[in-house]
UniProtKB/TrEMBL annotation:
It comes from Tumidithrix elongata BACA0141. Signal peptide: none annotated. Belongs to the phycobiliprotein family. This is Allophycocyanin subunit beta. GO terms for biological process: photosynthesis. (2R,3E)-phycocyanobilin binds at residues 72, 77, 82. The modification N4-methylasparagine is found at residue 72. It is a peripheral membrane protein. One of its GO terms (cellular component) is plasma membrane-derived thylakoid membrane. PANTHER family: ALLOPHYCOCYANIN BETA CHAIN, PHYCOBILISOME 32.1 KDA LINKER POLYPEPTIDE, PHYCOCYANIN-ASSOCIATED, ROD 2-RELATED. The gene is apcB.
């Protein structure tokens, strides 16, 4: 897993260049939000179970077919798996938030997830909606709405996006 600093340095190192003004500005921006990132991660961690529970409740209220016979969250086992997956997304979004880089999401969550969901017949549209709900709840809880806070969630929804909710 890389963070914003190692990713930026890697790009400049690969091209044999010194850090230029743009690179320094990117680093300053990352460090300027460092304390807020750590505070947000701490708040998310302390409230993770509640965030997942509330997000799941809202998702199933919005998309009740998910918990009806034939739905992807029908049966206790599938329902629990859905909430477990939401917890994974939240945890890895928190890692990416602190790192200021979405590589961890690509490496640990998104690679292979589309194939797994496809083979199981799980529509990703409802997954995307669940992630969007969690993002809104995190923004509300943390009390900030900067790109640094929402980008991990937006990255997952872009990568998993489809319109079959």
């Amino acid at each position: 897993m890389q963070d914003a600093v190692t990713s930026l340095i890697g790009v400049y190192d690969a091209t044999g260049r010194y850090l230029d003004r743009d690179a320094i500005e990117q680093l300053n921006s990352y460090f300027a939000t460092g304390a807020a990132r750590l505070k947000a991660a701490s708040t998310i961690t302390a409230n993770a179970a509640s965030l997942v529970r509330q997000s799941g409740a809202q998702l199933f209220e919005e998309l009740p077919d998910l918990i009806r016979p034939g739905g992807n969250a029908y049966t206790t086992r599938r329902f629990a798996a859905c909430l477990r997956d939401m917890d994974y997304y939240l945890r890895y979004a928190t890692y990416a938030l602190v790192a200021g880089n979405s590589d961890v999401l690509d490496e640990r969550v998104l690679q292979g997830l589309r194939d797994t969901y496809s083979s199981l017949g799980v529509a990703t549209g409802s997954t995307v909606r669940g992630i969007q709900i969690m993002k809104a709840k995190v923004v509300e809880l943390v009390g900030e709405n900067g790109d640094w806070l929402t980008e991990p969630f937006d990255h997952m929804t872009r990568e998993l996006g489809e319109n079959n909710i």
